[in-house]
Amino acid sequence: MGRHIDAALAVAIVLVGVASAAVLPRPAGSSGPADVPMNLTADIILRDGYFLEQHEVTTADGYILTMFRIPGSPANPVRVGKNVAFLMHGLLSSSADYVISGPGRALAYMLVDAGYDVWLGNARGNTNSRRHVFRDPDARNTDFWDFSWHEIGYFDLPAMIDYTLAYTGHTTLHYAGHSQGTTSFFVMASLRPDYNKKIRSMHALAPVAFMSNLRSPFVRAFAPFVNQLEWIMNMLGVNEFLPSNEMMILGGQRLCEDESPFQEVCANVLFLIGGFNSPQLNRTMIPAILENAPAGASVNQLVHYAQGYNSGNFRQYDFGLTLNLIRYGSIRPPDYPLHRVTAPVALHFSDNDWLAAVSDVRELHSHLSNSIGLFRVSDPRWNHLDFVWGIDANTFLYERVISFMDRYN
């Protein structure tokens, strides 16, 4: 009985939350860098003294995505020919993940300082990519949100990678993704295998594909009710999950700042999502984290993950028996053909990751034909969010990632 009460409570919480400049030659047909907007990612990069460009690309299905480029810094000047590193964020987050920790600690800055031309992607629907050629994300019953991480992998990543390569004149790049940034990569590399040839090395930080052994109480609680959740959301016409808004940002700043008695509550909310590791969370940074996340996502992204947990398989979206027959020609959605992933992939994992269990990462590894290997973070308490926000991520993780990228240049 208690388990069902906890699950119902988690669903209720979810429902409440839901309701609530060109340096290199530009390729032919591209618009080049647009004016740099004043948003969190741009503010942080400019504040920290790194060079910044904003680029936009339109996907084959009409979503307008924003990418940020850090081509250099005063200490490492811009020059033609730098090797390219492309970074992709996780669910409910944005490109700010890779700069929020500051110089010397954030992966994007460390890569720039190591001589890389760094590009930061933003998935459809987050605060930087809420545009479409004709769909309105804020309209009621809009089909703007009719996507999961499948479409991010199938459309968004190829569009951003192609643009980045064309703009820089390179034919290959290094890729690093966190959480959903790994899931979407495996979608792309398995269903559009020609993109494997464009990847020099891929670094999966807290890789999420198989999910049956995850320990997150949030996912485990609402996953059995995912069909009801999807139905209720469709009936309410609510398709965006935890949209970013000014009230949430201000609330996070007031409740979670250093002087607030509720700061430790904020910390524990983060721990409940990804695992407990108090020494690696910079409490002073929590308001900035909450300005970045949640950054917006579709309900279907969450539903798709819950389906994966329930089935134990890494497969395409389950639309139900009838629509599955129409879309796939079978009553069950097909598994992603991971044997077609031929890019060199390094899987970086940890023992205390509540969303990417060690056994699930090992299962993923067994399906990859060209794995660089499995690499455990040495801190036994390292959690899912430490991969992007951990105080010592630079020494526990990023130095190793950069050394592998250097090896594959």
From TrEMBL:
The keyword Hydrolase applies. It comes from the Eukaryota. InterPro entries: AB_hydrolase_fold (IPR029058), AB_hydrolase_lipase (IPR006693), Lipase_euk (IPR025483). The active site is at S179, D353, H384. Residues 1-21 form the signal peptide. Pfam families: Abhydro_lipase. Coiled coil: none annotated. One of its GO terms (molecular function) is hydrolase activity, acting on ester bonds. Keywords: Glycoprotein, Hydrolase, Lipid degradation, Lipid metabolism, Signal. Residues 42-101 form the Partial AB-hydrolase lipase domain. SUPFAM superfamilies: alpha/beta-Hydrolases. One of its GO terms (biological process) is lipid catabolic process. Belongs to the AB hydrolase superfamily. Lipase family. This is Lipase. It comes from Anopheles dirus. The lineage of its organism: Eukaryota, Metazoa, Ecdysozoa, Arthropoda, Hexapoda.
